[in-house]
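Researcher: Here's a chain I'd like modeled. Treat it as a single chain, no partners, no ligands.
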Amino acid sequence: MKTTEIVEQLTKPVVENMGFELCDVEFIKEYGNWTLTLYIDKEGGVDLNDCEAVSRAVDPVLEEADPIAQAYYLSVSSLGIDRPLKKDRDFERNLGKEVTAKLYAPVNGKKEFTGVLESFNEESFVLTLEKGTIELRRKDCGQVRPYIRF
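Model: Modeled as a single isolated chain. C-alpha cells:
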C-alpha cells in the first residue's frame, strides 16, 4: 500500500469527525525535504485556523502509527479554488461548473477545452462547449481545473 493511502486511512476518520472532508493526500520531496500535505475542505471553505486545528489533531495519530520512515514536514491546506480535478469526488464537486481541460495531444485540432462539466465516469467526461459537447478521455488530459473568471 502506498504511503498516501496509509496516511489517508489513518487520518480520514479524525478529519471527518472534525467536520471536514479529506480530499487528497500528497507525499512529495521538495528542495531536499519530504512534505506530507493533507488537503481538506468543508462547506463554506477552509481558513488558516481550520488547517491548524486539523494539523494538531492528526499529528498524534501519525506519530503513534509512524507510517513514514523518513523525516517529513506535515502540512494541512485547503483545496484552493483552482485545484486540479484528479479523483471522482473532484469531478463530482465540479459537476455543472466550468472547467478547463488541457490535453497531451490535440483533439479536433485543439489541446485545450473550456466548458461546463456535464457528466463523468472513470474513463471519460463530457463538457458542454459554446458549440455542442465533447467527450474527453481522462487519461488524455494532462490537467483538468476549474475555470476561474476574473
